[in-house]
Amino acid sequence: MLFVNAGVKNDDRETIADVSTEEFTRVMVTNALSPLRVIETFKDRVSPSGTIAVMSSGQGSLTNNTNGNYEVYRGSKAALNMFMRQLCRPSSGCAHTAVDGAGLGANRYGAGSA
């Protein structure tokens, strides 16, 4: 199993309209891009029947976003969830199970996800 945990957030009072480009980039790179870079670096060390997982957040759910707030953080975790879905999509040839860990239950994708 490979488990990757990364997370930062911006100031709670900043909306997407207020956040600087630098701060937006910092949150997105840390929360969405960096975990996938770690996975790409270490995925060959996971057995083909193994699991690759990231710590996401229920805040990244499009369905459960009923109250807004934390816009940049939410967007970064939604991006991470999408990247995990792409990592082991059926056409990718990935033999691993990818798990995004969002919310109370884990979303599983890939070979062992059934």
Textual characterization of the structure:
The protein is α/β, with parallel strands linked by helices and 114 residues long. The chain has a single domain, classed as NAD(P)-binding Rossmann-like Domain (Rossmann fold), CATH 3.40.50. Helix content is 34%, strand content 11%. The chain has two helices and four strands; from the N terminus they run E-H-E-H-E-E. A four-stranded mixed β-sheet has the order 1-2-3-4, covered by helices on one side. Helix 1 packs parallel to helix 2.
Secondary structure elements and pairings:
Elements: E1 2-4, H1 21-42, E2 51-54, H2 71-87, E3 97-99, E4 108-110
CATH architecture: 3-Layer(aba) Sandwich
Provide the β-strand percentage band. Answer: 5-15%
CATH class: Alpha Beta
N- and C-termini, Cα separation:
18 Å
Q: What is the percent of helical residues?
A: 25-40%
The computed structural class is alpha/beta
- Alpha-carbon Rg, integer: 15 Å
Short descriptors:
114 residues, alpha/beta, 4-stranded mixed β-sheet, elongated
What is the gist of this entry?
The protein has 114 residues and is α/β, with parallel strands linked by helices. The protein is built from 2 helices and 4 strands; from the N terminus they run E-H-E-H-E-E.
